[in-house]
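User: I'm writing a tutorial on reading structure tokens. Could you give me a worked example: one chain, its sequence, then its tokens, then a sentence or two explaining what the tokens reveal?
Assistant: Sure. Here is the example chain.
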Amino acid sequence: MDNFPKRQTAYKFWIKDLYSGIPKVDETTQLKAFEVRGKSVVRVNVLGNIIDTSVQDNYGSMTIDDGSAQIRLKVWNDDVELMKEKQVGDFVMIIGRLSDFNNERYVRPEIIRNMSFDWALLRNLELNHEYGAPSREEKIILKKEESVPDEVEPTLRAREIILNTIEKNEEASEDDLVSACGIAKDKVMFALYELLKEGEVFSPKKGYYSLV
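And here are its predicted structure tokens:
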């Protein structure tokens, strides 16, 4: 197992920290990453209140605020399901990829989960202990999007289905994963390739996959 790369950690930060991240390429995985507080970051774990949401057939956006700053979440195609039934005022935990495009920093969520406000207190204590309180100067406030942006990354929903299917069964075949995802095989295989490259899964034998 030591021969396989470790899974990408979803680091916890204040939202404001995400804007200070410097784009780079992770030397181990060759994935786009951001240098945030001395860490090479691909995935993040942040909490916040939903202050704006817009869900259409093939695109959804949501803005969350944790008191330090606001950041937009973006999903396309199958990933739109993640935002359905979420409402302004919900307090949520977001796990996803930190991204930027056209000079905008945003998150591609893999998980959007409603949480109690007790979690906000615990997270604030945790972040205050590790990083200190966020600066209140020049809080980043986002404007509403005026148009639907083109998709710039492959679907993340397929990634979550793949991971959940493998976790449930300990091992899964390509056919099992294609069936579970319910989308074109080439899209499933692309998502699977990304997971292999990132060290989320490995292949113990041809055509079968397990979690690292």
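What the tokens reveal: The first helix runs from residue 15 to 18. The first strand starts at residue 10 and ends at 12.
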